[in-house]
């Protein structure tokens, strides 16, 4: 559905996008994630045909975003971070106005406005002025406005920016409801946003794709993700001084790191780290604790998180490539 081939974009001396190649299949819900200045918004603006690439090709449904930009836009619904709403207009009037801009006739426009107002849950405020609505409602109005022409592809740039937790949850549910019938691209720098809403994550940093896959696959592929949490304490001694959990665990072969946290009830919580890609160490850790007479009430793998992936990838990109000049586009 969407294809980018060796795409670059420069603004003067600043190279905001540096050779992105990727494909997004029809029906996927994809999150484009990255820090500020990573090239996210520049990339989606090229997909939407709003700006041309400096070199490379961008196609949507087989149409080139430069030579057939009108055809691309007819198949695309794009909601930027700051939705272009006319606050003095009433919701219904604004949606009918947008329907005319999409070329819908009066009858088709009325049907589209009714359908999208119900879908985005703004039918009850159709007679209210947009400027009098909460930000959550304004976000829904913006979303309804980009769905009027029933686009094949939906691009949402920071769709929950500035919303309160209840509004964020409602917007996420709405996005998931919409995702089943169209290709959806969500652009964000907020980890929970893409982790909870998307089937696939494309992580950008320094204008390049640094990681691409499902949230589960990205976490599983992170080197050194196999750490273990143990909560233990020394048993009452029958003879001699008992050994503490940290003494026992430090003596286990292959342990590379050990973080300790004392609990108020005398138990010690330990985070034990081994070499990257080491096999499962739970049996060895349990045997070491049993041999030393330790009481153990918890032993489990400490899985990596998407935050670990994000921080590792961004740190690698920062070390591998110099920072862009001041004023780089996001």
Describe what you observe in this structure.
The chain has 330 residues and is of the alpha/beta class. The chain folds into two domains: 2-220, P-loop containing nucleotide triphosphate hydrolases (Rossmann fold, 3-Layer(aba) Sandwich), CATH 3.40.50.300; 227-302, Alpha-Beta Plaits (2-Layer Sandwich), CATH 3.30.70. The chain has eleven helices and 14 strands. The chain has helices at residues 40-47, 69-74, 91-101, 106-119, 135-145, 165-179, 191-197, 215-220, 245-250, 282-291, 306-320; strands spanning 2-11, 14-24, 29-33, 55-60, 63-64, 76-79, 153-157, 183-188, 200-205, 208-213, 227-234, 257-262, 268-273, 294-302. The strands form three sheets. It has a six-stranded mixed sheet, with helices on both faces. β7 (153-157), α6 (165-179) and β8 form a beta-alpha-beta unit. α3 packs across α4 (106-119). The longest helix is centred in the middle third of the chain and has 15 residues, at 165-179.
Itemize the secondary structure elements and their pairings.
Layout (H helix, E strand, L loop, with lengths): L1 E10 L2 E11 L4 E5 L6 H8 L7 E6 L2 E2 L4 H6 L1 E4 L11 H11 L4 H14 L15 H11 L7 E5 L7 H15 L3 E6 L2 H7 L2 E6 L2 E6 L1 H6 L6 E8 L10 H6 L6 E6 L5 E6 L8 H10 L2 E9 L3 H15 L10
């Amino acid at each position: 559905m969407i294809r980018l081939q060796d795409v670059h974009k420069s603004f003067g001396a600043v190279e905001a996008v540096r050779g992105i190649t990727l494909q997004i299949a029809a029906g996927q819900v994809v999150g484009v994630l990255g820090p500020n200045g990573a090239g996210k918004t520049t990339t989606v603006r090229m997909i939407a045909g709003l700006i041309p690439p400096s070199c490379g090709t961008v196609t949507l449904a087989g149409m080139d975003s430069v030579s057939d930009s009108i055809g691309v836009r007819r198949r695309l619904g794009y909601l930027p971070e700051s939705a272009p709403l006319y606050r003095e207009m009433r919701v219904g009037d604004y949606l009918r106005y947008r329907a005319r801009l999409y070329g819908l006739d009066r009858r088709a426009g009325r049907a589209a406005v009714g359908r999208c107002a119900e879908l985005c849950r703004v039918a009850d405020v159709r007679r209210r002025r947009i400027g009098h609505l909460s930000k959550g409602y304004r976000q829904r109005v913006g979303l309804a406005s980009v769905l009027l022409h029933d686009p094949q592809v939906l691009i949402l740039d920071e769709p929950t920016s500035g919303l309160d937790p209840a509004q964020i949850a409602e917007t996420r549910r709405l996005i998931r409801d919409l995702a089943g019938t169209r290709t959806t691209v969500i652009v964000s720098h907020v980890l929970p946003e893409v982790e909870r809403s998307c089937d696939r994550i494309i992580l950008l940093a320094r204008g390049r794709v640094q990681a691409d896959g499902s949230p589960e696959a990205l976490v599983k592929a992170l080197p050194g993700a196999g750490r273990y949490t143990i909560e233990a304490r020394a048993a009452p001694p029958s003879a001699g001084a008992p050994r503490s959990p940290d003494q026992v665990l430090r003596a286990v072969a292959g342990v590379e790191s050990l973080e300790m946290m004392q609990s108020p009830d005398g138990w010690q919580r330990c985070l034990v780290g081994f070499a990257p890609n080491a096999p499962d160490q739970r049996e060895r850790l349990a045997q070491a604790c049993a041999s030393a007479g330790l009481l153990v009430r918890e032993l489990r793998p400490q899985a990596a998180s998407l935050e670990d992936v994000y921080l590792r990838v961004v740190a690698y990109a920062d070390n591998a490539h110099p920072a862009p000049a001041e004023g780089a586009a996001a």
